[in-house]
């Protein structure tokens, strides 16, 4: 029986969620941050649970071939990055493998799923157009991993150069504890006091380089579908997909649904400026779905926050045939949860959930996070179909 503080040797078999490597000692699972598959490590137990042990690296006895030297001086101290020690192409493959394993396991290994190749970010460094820094004792920096103390920083290697250039000139104002630095869609620099509720809504995708790829991917998928006259962009934010979809599909009735009025205002301004025919509704998705009729052949795009879709929304969508649905997710565990609920709901209504394709896109290099785009349908069961 192991206890906190024990030191032992472990070989990392694969990556698990939260950016940790997974190994086993006497059949007990061990999670180790900043490890890589095939690492042989001397580790120290930091937490003992019934089903697993958390441990930290004491010594790398035999390094994985995936390892590289992390370039950031704050890596492992700052909690922002998880994978700087792994060559970038292998980061993408590892995250892609983990996402697909998570989804297929949650759905009972469905057949005939097109598991598409992952897409890497065009930029693996200096891609973030939004960072949050903390102020403590007249110092500006990031929180130390698993702590509320501050690591003063001179630059962040995953932040865009314009944000790093602004860091030295930031003015520390009394009472401000957290500041967001960001570039808007027009590449204009802004700062926001995150302690103030009076700040205006500003929003941008964190990686504009990868976001261009993501938007084109979703638009291409939507355009490839045929025989629909209405498109519903649910959780549409400021119109990241809605604007591009409306431009690509000028003859389709495109409707965006978003609860945040500030984001809707931004989206409506862009629609007006571009003279598009898209329409916005300010509403939660679940309430909207209770009041609108969506035909089985209509196109649905889902792009929820990291917490995933509302359960009621999933049950409504799963209760009727849906030919064309694209779900864009930034959190594979909530995506798996939502798809499992869709599958269970469809079965209760005598329907079948079909996962058609899964594709990952690395929106967040050097971190554990990854974007996933899945296509699925809710179909009627007939004599020629096979349930998954």
Concise description?
By secondary structure, this protein is an alpha/beta fold.
How would you describe this structure to a colleague?
The protein is α/β, with parallel strands linked by helices. The protein has helices at 88-106, 161-166, 208-224, 242-248, 261-274, 285-291, 311-317, 332-348; strands at residues 7-15, 20-25, 28-33, 40-48, 52-62, 114-115, 130-136, 139-143, 150-152, 178-183, 189-193, 230-234, 253-258, 279-282, 299-302, 322-329, 351-361, 371-380. It folds into three domains: 7-62, Nucleic acid-binding proteins (OB fold (Dihydrolipoamide Acetyltransferase, E2P), Beta Barrel); 88-122 and 207-380, Rossmann fold, CATH 3.40.50.150; 130-193, no CATH class. The strands form three sheets. An eight-stranded mixed beta sheet has the order 6-17-18-16-15-12-13-14, sandwiched between helices. The radius of gyration is 23 Å and the shape is globular. The mean pLDDT is 94.
Please specify the SSE layout and strand pairing.
Layout: E1 7-15, E2 20-25, E3 28-33, E4 40-48, E5 52-62, H1 88-106, E6 114-115, E7 130-136, E8 139-143, E9 150-152, H2 161-166, E10 178-183, E11 189-193, H3 208-224, E12 230-234, H4 242-248, E13 253-258, H5 261-274, E14 279-282, H6 285-291, E15 299-302, H7 311-317, E16 322-329, H8 332-348, E17 351-361, E18 371-380
Parallel strand pairs: 3-5, 6-17, 12-13, 12-15, 13-14, 15-16
Antiparallel strand pairs: 1-2, 1-4, 2-3, 4-5, 7-8, 7-10, 8-9, 10-11, 16-18, 17-18
Helix pairs in contact: 1-8, 6-7, 7-8
